[in-house]
């Protein structure tokens, strides 16, 4: 991670991705759950699972949960119920990322915090309740399934920047995916690629937080 562009006073707001930045994600738990219900080896599901067009449409609220699970039923070749798909779908949340419960309130004392996540309605319903205390540190949480736009599309970043009311150049954005980092930088944000549990803390220290 490069923190050379970060210094005390160089940001007016912080924008966080949720998955693998604030909330730990383990997709193997979904695979194991589905395989258990289907009576097949997890490897068979891993070999067939792709984040396809149905996945993207689900993340921007264009298709229903039932339609997305139907697409999974077809692509994965398993005959499990919607309830069983949902069980595995929400099993991916593996707790908070290390140290984030201490870092967020500390940062919130100095700068406004926001979140921007590519996600879907079932996940929102789940993590909004399960991690309500942690998410309370954010002034606003922008969700792809609510705004109809997803990272790394420029329109998505432009929408969130406008909603925040902060110049893009004064926002520091944290995300674990390289394509989202590139998209944010192309829209004028300062972006920190989170690839380890220490990256957020290092960036905040560089900002004087």
Automatic annotation (TrEMBL):
Keywords: Hydrolase. SUPFAM superfamilies: HAD-like (SSF56784). Pfam families: Hydrolase. GO terms for molecular function: hydrolase activity. It comes from the Bacteria. InterPro entries: HAD-like_sf, HAD-SF_hydro_IA, HAD_sf, PGP-like_dom2. This is Haloacid dehalogenase-like hydrolase. It comes from Bradyrhizobium cosmicum.
């Amino acid at each position: 991670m490069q923190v050379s562009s970060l210094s005390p006073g160089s940001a007016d707001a912080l924008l966080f991705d949720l998955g693998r930045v604030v909330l730990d994600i383990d997709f193997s738990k979904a695979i194991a759950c589905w395989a258990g219900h289907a009576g097949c080896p997890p490897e068979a599901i891993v070999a067939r699972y792709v984040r396809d067009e149905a996945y993207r449409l689900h993340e921007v609220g264009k298709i229903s949960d039932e339609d997305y699970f139907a697409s999974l039923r077809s692509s994965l070749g398993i005959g499990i119920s919607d309830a069983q798909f949902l069980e595995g779908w929400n099993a991916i949340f593996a707790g908070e990322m290390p140290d984030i419960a201490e870092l967020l309130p500390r940062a919130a004392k100095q700068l406004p915090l926001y979140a921007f996540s590519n996600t879907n309605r079932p996940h929102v319903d789940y993590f909004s309740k399960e991690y309500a205390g942690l998410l309370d540190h954010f002034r606003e949480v922008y969700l792809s399934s609510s705004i109809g736009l997803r990272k790394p599309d420029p329109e998505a970043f432009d929408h969130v920047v406008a909603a925040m009311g902060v110049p893009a150049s004064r926002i520091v954005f944290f995300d674990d995916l390289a394509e989202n980092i590139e998209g944010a930088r192309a829209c004028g944000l300062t972006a920190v690629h989170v690839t380890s549990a220490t990256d957020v803390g290092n960036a905040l220290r560089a900002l004087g937080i």
